[in-house]
Amino acid sequence: xxxxxxxxxxxxxxxxxxxxxxxxxxxxxxxxxxxxxxxxxxxxxxxxxxxxxxxxxxxxxxxxxxxxxxxxxxxxxxxxxx
Length: 82
Prior knowledge:
It is a single chain. The chain has one domain (2-80). It is mainly alpha-helical. The longest helix has 27 residues, at 26-52. It is 80% helix and 0% strand.
């Protein structure tokens, strides 16, 4: 919880600084923060749901492999933009 509060505080400080300097990026900062939060929540929720049903042994191997492919692909897209 402290990490979430610290992140929100950093976004608020960044947005305030951008607004004060009239950089016109406040909206982009907020959109990026909300998007990052949604992605982290989704990436955290999937394994939690999988492992809650029966631990690591209860996870279907194909599901685990598919999840890993999605996570790897999304990180590549984020790094290279394609």
